[in-house]
Amino acid sequence: MLQSRALVIALILLLSTTLPEVHSKSIFEKDRRDWLVIPDAIAAYIYETVNKMSPRVGQFLVDAAQTPAVVVTRNFLIRETTKLSILAEQLMEKIKNLWYTRILGY
């Protein structure tokens, strides 16, 4: 029991999220820059499964996901991945522009 509890805590800390955030976000949203949507969806699935088996453990997971350390870490990851996503979009625009002007001659 202790090992499974530790595993669930580790998964939630790794994929930490709050439930309302997951259900309000679409994984396939086109202008989405948050790369943590898929881990959020996985965390929500884990929470729902655990909550069906034991509501007390489910509540514990919700409380663990809302601890300040987890929230700060998650916000940092969201900020940094957003920056990376913007840079990747800019790079793709430059490559597309180069392709059209240099290679295809438009």
Please give the structural blueprint.
Elements: H1 2-15, H2 19-24, H3 37-53, H4 55-65, H5 68-103
Helix pairs in contact: 1-3, 1-4, 3-4
Protein name: Apovitellenin-1
GO molecular function, one term: enzyme inhibitor activity
Organism: Eurypyga helias (Sunbittern)
Key attributes of the depicted protein:
single chain; 106 residues; 0% strand; 5 helices
Mind explaining what this structure looks like?
Pfam families: Apo-VLDL-II (PF05418). Protein component of the very low density lipoprotein (VLDL) of egg-laying females. Potent lipoprotein lipase inhibitor, preventing the loss of triglycerides from VLDL on their way from the liver to the growing oocytes. Belongs to the apovitellenin family. One of its GO terms (cellular component) is chylomicron. There is one protein chain. The chain is an all-alpha fold and 106 residues long. It is elongated. It is built from 5 helices and no strands. It has a domain of 66 residues. Helix 1 runs antiparallel to helix 3.
